[in-house]
Amino acid sequence: MSKSFDVVVIGAGPGGYVAAIRAAQLGFSVACIDENKNADGKPALGGTCLNVGCIPSKALLESSEQFHKIQHEAAIHGISVTGAKVDVAKMLERKQKIVNQFTTGIGLLFKKNKVTSLHGHGKILKRENEKWLVEVGGDASEVVEAKHVIIATGSTPRYIPGIEVDNVDVLDNVGALSLSAVPKRLGVIGAGVIGLEMGSVWKRLGAEVTVLEAMPSFLAAADEEVSKLALRLFTKEQGLNIQTGVKITETKKVKKVIQIKYTDSAGAEQLLEVDKLIVAVGRVPNTNGIAAPEVGLRIDQRGFVEVDDHCHAGLPGIWAIGDVVRGPMLAHKASEEGVAVAERIAGQKPHLDFNCIPWVIYTAPEIAWVGKTEQQLKAEGVAYKKGSFPFAANGRAHSLNAAQGFVKMLADANTDRILGVHIIGPMAGELISEAVVAMEFHASSEDIARIVHAHPSLAEVMHEAALGCDKRAIHN
Length: 476
Prior knowledge:
CATH architecture of the largest domain: 3-Layer(bba) Sandwich
Largest sheet: 7 strands, mixed
Oligomer: single chain
Number of strands: 22
Distance between the termini: 71 Å
Structural class: alpha/beta
Mean pLDDT: 97
């Protein structure tokens, strides 16, 4: 007889494992199916985020930034350092230790919350007696029953036709996190989050980095003032060679060199030769083989599971969350959708506002935003006012030797309700949380302006930006 559960979750990434735990907290019997394995062939919970994405990339970013500070900033503090060297193997060992700690931790959380962990490929087979039959394919294949199924299978790297990723010389995010040595010349195709973060890591460690971006503008999703400053800082001050508006015509290996032929934004033909190449042109939903045809699961032309505003897939008891559905491909978005679906199954009425989901790019300086950009408000014809304040006028930023960038707040011209906040500067990923809370509670810029912010702190820049919406910033 098949094992029977109230809820079966397919995928143990940040959406799936969180959904499983929340469903268990609500009193449901829960199983979570995941097929991911680590380098040793053992089950590895946590999905892309914990294994080869968010967590390991931040570990390498921090290591490379520490090396850069020792080389270029220690002297400012009166600290003399000579002979600083990079031990890439040790750096990767630290990264993997952090990954192992967190992936093992999910297993412990499953045990604590009585979630049954099943290893294998999850596939919805059919509906029988008002329950779904879900296959767990693998070394010990089995079929389990579920009243509700939550699809949380995440995404995989998008590849470019004609460019073969072998994760030896041509790399995706997995290979980019595992380079055993610093390449002399590194090429990156794609100037999105992954491309910029990985390019920054290896540039700080000594690589000559060229980033090729097909879009005509840099960081088009960010506020234009932020992307303009970011481009200047990344190129003129940090030495990244970022080319936008390019069209790649050919990529091939010639002995140990990778040759990339492309036309630049002016239409001129160019040739780039690199030792390693990272392909970072986005991600695609991982929906192959998740349901038998007779199930009737609707998947659109781009590979996303079609769902309504509540993440329901239009079939009794079938839900989908995270990267396999519409909306931003962000780990924290997936987690909150997982919580919301578990609570909806329990009859609750949670709400998730996509306009209040923060974005963060962990470069140096960091970039973060929430809500509308200034160009979006202009295009929509929304009357707005703005306040902007530089970190250059903040004492805490100067003590950190990180006084570049600014906070920009956009508010409705009539109601003063905050419509968007954009940050480029130190700890932007932490500072943006105040803006998210404010927008969730429909706060006005005056609300932030009236709150006492600690001195000296980076948060004072948020405070001054809010004051600036009414043209009454104190220190600008």
